[in-house]
Amino acid sequence: MSKLIVGLTAGLLFGTLASEASHRSPGLYTIYGAGNLSCGTYAEQSRGTQLSWILGFVSGVGSQAFLEETDRAAIEAWIRHYCHMYPLQTVAAASTSLVVTLAQRQGDRR
Predict the structure, then answer these.
(1) Which of 15, 18, 65, 78 is the most buried (most CB within 10 A)?
(2) Torsion angle in degrees (nearest 10) through CA of 40, 50, 80, 66
(3) Domain limits at 56?
(4) How far is CA 48 from CA 13, 45, 67, 72, 73, in A?
């Protein structure tokens, strides 16, 4: 399971530096939609669509890995803080960092 998280993290953190409509990480997958937006854009725009993308991403990973349970408000606050600290990163990178944190916290409780 940890290999899934590490692979996912590496793919998103190193493969989502572009801010175009979609981006293919070599040998991995394409990220569509709001995941390609910069955190700076996330902070300035209405977050409805982006938050929906983030919640879907976290839910999708959560269906394949053990993540600490949380709620929408906590996810939104965590992403907002991350994007404030790293405005040049993408929403996908922020979401991946959140997933890694939730997986680590869940692992600490086992």
Answers:
(1) 15
(2) -130
(3) 2-109
(4) 23, 9, 23, 12, 13
Take residue 109 and report the two structure tokens written for it.
Answer: 């409780």
Distance between CA atoms of residues 97 and 40, nearest Å: 16
**How is residue 104 written in tokens?**
């680590």
Residue 26 DSSP label: T
pLDDT tens-digit map of 36-59 = 899 999 888 867 788 999 999 999
**Given a cut of 70, is residue 106 above it in pLDDT?**
yes
Which two three-digit tokens encode residue 81?
A: 């803080």
CB atoms closer than 10 angstroms to residue 97: 18
Tokens of 45: 């725009």
